[in-house]
Amino acid sequence: MAKERLKELDIIRAIAFIFVVDQHILGGYSYIKELPKDQYLILKMFYIVAKPAVPIFLTISAISLFYVYYDNFNAKKYYIKRAKYILIPYIIWSAINMYKLGNRDGFNDFIWQVLSGNGGFHLWYMGMILRLYICFPIILYIGKRIYNSNKVLRIIVFISTFPAYYMLSKYQYVISQNAGKFIFNNPTELQQKFVNVSSIFWILYFILGIYIALNYKTFKNIIMKFKWVVIAAYLPLLVYTYMNEIEAVKFIRSVYILFTIVTILVVYIIAIYLANFKSLYNKFKFIGDYSFAGYMAHIIVLNWFANNLQFYFGIKNHLILGVLVWILTSITTPIIMSFLNCFPYSQYVIGAKNNIIKDINNKKRIQNTDKKIIGYNL
Fold first, then answer.
1. pLDDT (0 to 100) of residue 1
2. For the chain, first and last CA: distance in Å?
3. CA 327, 197, 253, 234 torsion: positive or negative?
């Protein structure tokens, strides 16, 4: 029996993709030297709001994996699906990004480019999350054992995750540098980057997703019951993180981690609300369906819009230019991916089932439903 679709996750996936595009254009422009003060301050706010995009992706990845596979896991099918819909598209897009973004020398050590997520500056995320996908059966086993243990142990494990992650985050550079020397003795730049993008440095948000998935109904009820408390907590955390970004206050790691977690919860609340509106849901779902390929392709699309808008329209205001590129890239990239998904074997590029195959399957389902109705009426 198919599980109920968690519509809110479709929306969260779309929001996370939109946040990623925000970071890479508006966030990028915010670091331009001699930027007018007003543009600088507004661009930084856009950047800070979207900064938790990767933790959001990790959290919903964990929720989706545990929700789908907790009761029905087949290792062979799991790995075939990950190879077909994630690994192969990632390898292809690594090559495309290397070619389009001027890293053509990287083809000389292409395997390390892929392993370290260096095909494009944004592909580090893929180099990181692939390791979580590979280790997922072990994570699933451990998660089940802890979940089926007594309540006290579950609480202890969950609470201890936060101080452990805090220490990992605080000493990330020291840990990664020493690990690189230990594993490779004298690591190359790519080998060190392979260590630097280890999923262990982001594991808190994946674990958060696991706990949400294992207690989903309870979590949803509690969050929606206290939604205004969550939103009220978000606002001062946003102000602090913004002030820190513009170097007006000192960085406090624990507060920043809390800001990231609360942002995830706020995005979840917004997604629950938006899921009630069919038209909005369908639009966000469309973006979410192609967010994986869109993530890997968006820098190419973003650069095209930025260069052409500047060249043909002479837009010099980085705030206006950034917002236009952000909107156009967020909308256009999924549309391009949807178009590509109509071609044979597109699943190996897009990472989603081919549109033609989906249409055939939908027609079969409708025909089977009609036959059942006719048979019942007879």
1. 54
2. 27
3. positive
* Residue 253 near residue 169 (C-beta atoms within 8 A): yes
Confidence at residue 353, expressed as pLDDT on a 0 to 100 scale? 84
Q: Kindly state the DSSP code that residue 4 receives in the 8-state scheme.
A: P
| Residues 255-280 pLDDT 10s | 999 999 999 999 999 999 999 999 99
At residue 123, φ and ψ (nearest 5 deg) are -80, 0
Element at 131 (helix H, strand E): helix 124-147
Q: What angle do CA 32, 37, 41 make, to 5 degrees?
A: 80
Structure tokens of 83? 């190879």
The secondary structure of 149-199 as a DSSP string is S-HHHHHHHHHHHHHHHHHHHHTHHHHHHHHHHHHHSS--HHHHHHHHT-G
Tokens standing for 135? 């280790």
Q: Which parts of the chain have pLDDT scores under 70?
A: 1-2, 355-378
State how far the alpha carbon of 336 is from the alpha carbons of 99, 322, 345, in Å.
Answer: 19, 20, 16
Q: Label residue 235 exposed, middle or buried (CB < 10 Å: 0-12, 13-18, 19+).
A: exposed
Q: What pLDDT is attached to residue 4?
A: 82
d(CA 318, CA 244): 22
Q: What is the pLDDT of residue 368?
A: 57
pTM of the model: 0.91
Give Cα separations from 196 to 124, 125, 353 (angstroms): 9, 11, 33
